[in-house]
Amino acid sequence: MAKSALIVVDMQEDFCPPVSVNPQLKIRENEYETLLTRCPSTFKSGALAVPGGRELSTAINKLLAMPFTLKVATRDLHPEDHISFDTSHPPPNNKAFESSTTISNPQNPSETATIAIWPAHCIQGTPGAEIIPEIDISKVDRIIDKGQDRRVEMFSAFLDVFGNESDAASFDLAAYLKEEGVSRVFVVGLAGDYCVRCTAIDARKEGFEVLVVEESVKSIDEGEKGWGAAKKEFEDKGIKVVSIDGPEVQNIKVSS
Question: Is 146 considered catalytic here?
Fold first, then answer.
C-alpha cells in the first residue's frame, strides 16, 4: 500500500488573523487591518493574515492525529531585508499588494522573474514566524524552513520560483520523502492560492501523487482568480482536491 505524507504549509502567526494580547478585547475580523495600522501593539502578529486561517487548526489537527507515514510542517523564515518586502524598496515602488520588482536567478543571473511586493512577514526570530499554538506541533516529524535567501522568492516547500533546489530551504523535502518510501502527499494550510498551490504543483513535478484537502486550506483570494484558478491548475496537472471526510483521507486511518 502506498505510503502517504501530510504537508502542513505555513500555519504561522503572520499568516493568521491576529490574536489580541488582551483576551477580553473582542474584535471583528474586518477591523484587524485598521487596528494593526493604528495600534500594532494590540496584537501579537498577523502581518499578512489570511481570513479564517487560524480556524483551520481544528481540521489540520484532525489530520495530524491520523497515521501518515510522515508529517511535515513548513515555515516561511525570511531575513529582515528579503527582496519581496515593501520595507526593502524605496517609494513609490514599495506598495504592498500593488508594486512588483524584478529578481534574478542566483544560479543563472541571466534569468529573471517579476514578483509581487508584500508586507514584511515571518521574519527570522520574530513571533510572526512561529507556528500558531493551536497546531499540535508534537505530531510533526520535521519542520522545513523556506524563503531564507533574501535574493529569491520561494512559495513552495520544494523549489524556489526559478525551479531551483536552493539554500533558501533548510532541507531537501523531496529527497526526505522518497528516502522514507512516500509516494503520495496530502497538502494543507496557507495560503491556498500561493504557498499551498506551489507546494502541491512542485510535489507533482517531483513525481508524487498529490491531494489537497479543501477544508484544511484558506486563500488570500477565495474567488475565481485566486483559489478557483489554483483548483483549475490542480486539475490540469493531475492533482486531486479532496474532502477531509472523503475516502482518500479516511483510508489513511486503515493504511497503517
Answer: yes
